[in-house]
Amino acid sequence: MAPKPSKRDWFRNKLVVRSPSPLPARPAPRPAAAATRTSSSEPTYTRNGSNILADALEALDREDRETIRTLLPTNVFTIDAAFDEVHGVVSELGELCANKRWSWTYKGHKVYVHDQVDKVVQLLDKFKSVGDVVANVDPIHVGLPWAGIRLILEVALSDRHQRAILVTGMELSFHISNRLKVYLDAYARASPSLASDNFRRSVVNLYAHILRFLGCAIRIQQKSAVSRTAQALWDTSDLTRFEERCDTLCSRAGEEARICDSGESLRIQLQSLQEIDKIHGSLSRLQDKADLAKLITAAGATYDSYAEGELPRCLPGTRIELLKLINDWATDPAGQRMFWLCGVAGTGKSTIARTVAESLHEDGLLGASFFFKRGRGDRSHATLLFPTIARQLADLFLEVGHAVASALDEDSLLCDKHLQPQFEKLLLQPLQQAGRPSIRTASVVIVIDALDECENDRNIMTILRLLSKIEVITSIRLRIFVTSRPELPVVLGFRKEVRGDLHHDVRLEDVEQTTIERDIRIFYELQFSQIKESNLQYDDEISAEWPGESTIASLVDRAKPLFIVAFTVSRYIAEADPIGRLDKMLRQDSNEPLTGLKDTYLPILEQVVAVGDASQRNIRTAEFQHIVGSIILLSNPLSTTALSSLLVISRPEIVKVLQPLSSVLNIPWTADGRIHPTTPITLFHLSFRDFLLDASLKDENKFWIDARKMHGILGTQCVRLLDYGTLREDICAVNNPGTRRAEVAKSTVHDSLPEAVAYACRYWVQHVVDSGEHVTDVGAVYPFLEKHLLHWMEALSWLGRASDIIHGLRALRSVTSAQSGTQLLSLLDDAIRLALSNRYIIDHAPLQTYVSALLFAPSQSIVRRMFAGGLRKYFKTMPRVPERWGAEMQKLEGHKRRLTSLAFSPDGKTLMSGSKDCAVIWDVATGEEMQKYEHETGVSDVAFSQDGNTLALYLGDSIVLRDTATGEVTQKLIGHHGEVTAAVFSLDSKTLSSTSKDSTIRLWDVATGKEMQKQELAQPIENESLVFSSDNRTIAYGSGECVLIQEAATGVEKQKLVGHTSVITAVAFLLDGRTVVSGSWDMTVRLWDIEIGKEKQKFIGHTQSVLCVAGSLDSRTIASGSVDRTVRLWDARTGIQKQSFTGHSDAIVAIAFSAGGKTIASGSWDMTVRLWDATMSEETQKLEGPEDSGPSLNNPITAMCVSLDGQMIVSGSWDGTIRLWDVATGEETQRPLVTNAQYIKAVDLSPDLEILAFGSMYGAFGLSDPQLGTTRLWDADTGEEIDEVSDAMRSRKGRDVGFIKISPHSKTILITTERDEMIDEAVRLWDVATEKEMQRFQLSSTEDIEEGILHEVLTAVAFSLDSTTVATGSAVQLVASGPWDGTVRLWDAASGKLTDIRCSKLHRYPRWMRFTNDGSALDTDVGRVDLSLPCGLGQASPPPITEVSMSSDYQWVQCDGSDVLWLPHGYRDHSRRAFASHGALIAVGREDGTVSCFSFEPWFGIT
Question: Region entry Disordered: which residue ranges (predicted)?
Fold first, then answer.
């Protein structure tokens, strides 16, 4: 008789059948004969295989041997099942690690976890090449402890800390095991001999080594969870020793194998294992390639791009000395890190840069190149400098590519970030991580041309400052070659930001005049030689002596020192009629002083209009001004096709104007001599643009272009192009409103927003602004925005330019007329608020512009009312929202842990926030995250220096100083022996004073980081309330209920301020130096005169402890933040409360005024930063009942349900009140029900609306009659009726009511109570009529818990429609620290017996469930469970869409598992319990005690 299966086996087989998808297809059932090949189904082995296993086991010590033996398969069928389970867990690991770049460093190399998992899968498949272990039984299949291996892999699945090392260890184990299998096959073929005996011993030793390695880990895993936490299964040294010993044993076995098996079979099998490594490498490279595709690069910026590739290089024999100097610098191991080639416009810097880049490339020394070009879109600014360089380095060096790909996987929007994080994560860190073996060149040079043409002066200096950090890179000799004009930002950058010993400078003007003349002469001679050669087939009249020595000398004299003159003249002469054109150039009066390049460009342009009569010439001139004027003023170059679309001029007309201008414009040509239709037209040199726009030549240059007028035309044309059928909702046709921008291919965006449209979206505002005209309500702009504002915002988001929305709206506002543009101004103000409030989601999911951004905008928002029709397309009913925009201007999200501190920069343009995970620098104007500094030690406080150049971050007992512009750590101040509580910079920013819980004040030199002075404090610092006065002479801090005032230099106490009645939590000095403000647990804020030691004002209004205070710069306003989640402003003179701002969902712990005092920043434990308008009153309309509706609404909702008919919502709150809401109106239907319970955790309403049941903290539950408003209360544990929650109930841990559910016939109530922190739950069925408990059943027995087999948490409950069956959904953990699976159980309501147990979708547990009308299935949020199948069978299948749900992070409303609506922070269910749905209706309880409910339109597919 077979032994009764253990409870462990029963749960594993019935509860969780692991079959992750996709597994290889199972073969057809075996024929009966095959299935009975051995009567006992015991495994059979090839030649002496069982003895090899036995010998390997005997080679182990007793402990290892017993560990392995207990886990070995007993027959071929258990081998098959165990192997499948291992394969299943590995597949789950693959799903978990898919598209993740988790990595660790092993033996000096970065190892990616998902790569190792892929190799494990392939190695397992190698074991089971046919798909049936029975057909391939050998000692490796039989002799590996598959059950133990599964347990190791389950730890890897659940423990992120051990995941990387365990996966790598298993990859090593399987790799060596596969190799061992090859050796065993070879041994089976060998004839008995002394050589085969030696071979056998080698195989046994290798076998035993593998089993010993696995056995050690399995023993540790089998310990209790508590014992195991202190001991990892393997560490790095274990892996290293195992691999090194395996190499030795494999080498020995391999030699013995070759002696015994001289055939090809062994070599072929070993080669097949090597193929896995090759495939793994290819897959890894494909993953890298996919991640690197996220790099946004500047088109045409490299030296060999189409835009730069055809431009000239230095001719042979020219620039000899300079090029040799540059080459020597690049190859000199002791050379400076940077080379700066400086010269005025037209001296040939770019030509030299192209030549240098090409030469370095030929020598294998070029790492990357970037050629700036003013007015060339992405090449004119610094945004894509580092991504473009990183892309080139990643293509060259494998390890650099790995590191860059990893950075992009972690942050797919890295290319949108500021220069600092781009430089660090795309260049500095990848190059530091790259090992020497992968970068074999002696030097790697990055060429950056025309740095002065980078648009932002500050960015130029930042680039140089960042590039100077390359000296820390030791893996390669990195060199930077930079060219520029001697513009001030570049000069200052090299002078101030780059140490003098790091760069070598050469000025082209300092090159000897004779050298310049020689090089220009050589250039002319070569050009004329080529002209004569190319004209032989057309004109044989050009003599060999042409143009003559004197002519060349004259041309050289006119050109020097500007190579651009020689270049332009030679191209002009070569285009047509060389002799005639040269004569025209020479006839220019050589004695007339040159005005810039007038004498070069005017003769060339004259050829453009030298047609027909004066009228025709005027028309041609106007065409030139319109077309060429557009080209030179475009913010990004366009092709002729795009120009045609933008300017509404036929392409042939554009081509006709451009064809004679190839000497001054870089015109791309096709092979058949036509202008390329899709390649942009660019300038050869900026001097041509300067010449055409030079207002001083206006009267004598008939080609002069009025820049303002032309910008006006371009702005109008951009708006026209976007207005006429181009922009529309969902322009990329992604359909799902929750689609993330990062999920959509760039090619899709490009096809949807072609070149001209993308240009118009990005730059129409800039052209309107640059036109210099005031914008009014009458004109093209206002009607365009009325129709396309949201479409334009969506398009910019798809283009990755969400921050341009805010910049554009503000720029447009700056040129709108206050008198005749009132409607437009109102629209722009409203649009700016909408964009600021929703910047994060518009950037990440563009279609949420029409959904979330509009839905939660104030009801009187101009934008909302203007586009209300779009909302009605999505929503049948909508939540009540504030009437107008409140004082909250922006919500900054990005921190993952609680906020601790805030500080504005002195200029008020940036804000720094600190939290337990990092410090972030924000752009106050746009809300954009500029920089992020992550530290293992949480950031307890932050500060700016007075000059704004230095940041101070408090990290435990030390202070880190960083450069504001680059983020570089400049000093680390170490000396305190306790947590730093305060620090302040001196007025000259040269010193910093700090205090700590070690009761000392220390003075530090900011430049050197040295401690200058130390002062002991008389009283210990008990909290972080200490502050310095603005002159650093006085400190104030809380000590118990008092505020102590002391001299900073001596520690002498000056005053002891007494008045608070509880602990002081916050102190701040006002700028007058004699006034201190303090906050306390006593809920008051007080103002003190420290000169006389008296209280000046007492501010009362907060309802909970005050945690932070601050004063405005003019000392007239006091701000305070509290546990009551409000920010309050107080009049310092009168003590009257001026404002109260609400919005945070947790305690406010930091507050700060901007420099102008108009903006207040607050930081909260809800992990957000809010910016408030201090000048604006908070006038928000809340979803409330009548004024006499009872207890305050300002209590978070903690439980909700929707009535069966979907017409009513019930909410329970933290304070024990229950409210009923009408879905249609959003109003309360009656006065709130006041219970004597605390923290309502569950509510339910009977189908007939006559019974309201609720459960609360401490195990109390109650019933109410909604009509009468009466309430009764019971103790769920004892069943006794109570008046209120007793102290005895409060003392019981883990007895809260988890769920409460009224049966459909309203006769039974299901109540669950928690029995332990990890074990949910005791389930009770309570009879309404008898008021007695009918049944009680436990989801898991005490025996199961003690064995460590099962942890279970109830997640959902449901009654069948006939009330006879109860369904419970749970999250189940079979192995400590293992994964959580979803499980559904069915119980008989009458007997309380378990009738069925089902597995829901693997590793998903249901959060709601409902029986279908016919009772044949359960619909859940993870799928439909078919109950018609036999007991214990049936995975969950995708259900029909019958209900909306919430994402696991409670930020998204989902339909069919897809995100459709993003919830702003204030509309989320922060308690994770205040959410309910009914068909298409969804209701969310808010922290302020209100309810938001809305329903989707039927076209979403929800019923």
Answer: 18-48
